[in-house]
Request: fold
Amino acid sequence: MRWEDFRTSSNVEDRRGMGLPGGAGGLGIGTIVILGLLGWALGIDPRILIGGAEMMTGGGSGYQQQQGRQGTPQDEMGRFASAVLGNTEDVWSTVLPQQANRQYQAPKLVLFSDATRSGCGGAQSAMGPFYCPLDQTVYIDLSFFEEMQRRFRAGGDFAYAYVLAHEVGHHVENQLGILPRVQERQQQVGRAEANQLSVRVELMADCLAGVWAHHSNQRWRSLEPGDIEEAIHAAEAIGDDRLQKQSQGRVVPDSFTHGSSEQRMRWLTTGLKAGQIQACDTFRASRL
Reply:
């Protein structure tokens, strides 16, 4: 992937090495890890458990006090993340008005190590990358890319770019008004249906990542041989069925929150081929 040619984003905040702020006011790292593992075992998004615990302890109010370094990081992986974010900004600032008649407001990207605070509560490396709609920010510990390579054998710069573009896809969903409606609905239904709604949200973000890649390649010729295979392999490696099989030896479809390997590969490919937001409407699709 020719990411070196991308414009770097100014919407990056680097908190790596800073640790958690606020000391006694927030959840401890051990608590965050336990809640993350509990969410994984129960099929519940860990961010829901952590965010709830933050509100109960009064620890969610101080996250804005943490300020990291602004601007383009100097290390290679930091520059990579900044460049991919910049390219998503360039793509969506054109595609969203053209296809959805909405102006694109770019999200922020926070790089952290181990743990930090977000508008949605505590963020811990074990949770993986995530998007917080409350502060319209993507959070990622870049060591996740090393874990992708080590644990899932899913490395490569375009595979890593797909992960970032997926989280930006959630921001696009938020700008389209989809996330607030889904979250409201999830509070009204049972766990199985709430999980199914989560799967639709995640698969749409996979597809939107494909839409970004389609237009990035069309405009900048950014993809190189093998890149698409890298991303599809990554999508396969992080499917709920595959992860559950690895971690607990069995698959529980009702607890899926992101979609199966087959679904994630198929929706990413749909976005790559179509380049259209409309093609990513998982909420009206007869087949997920």
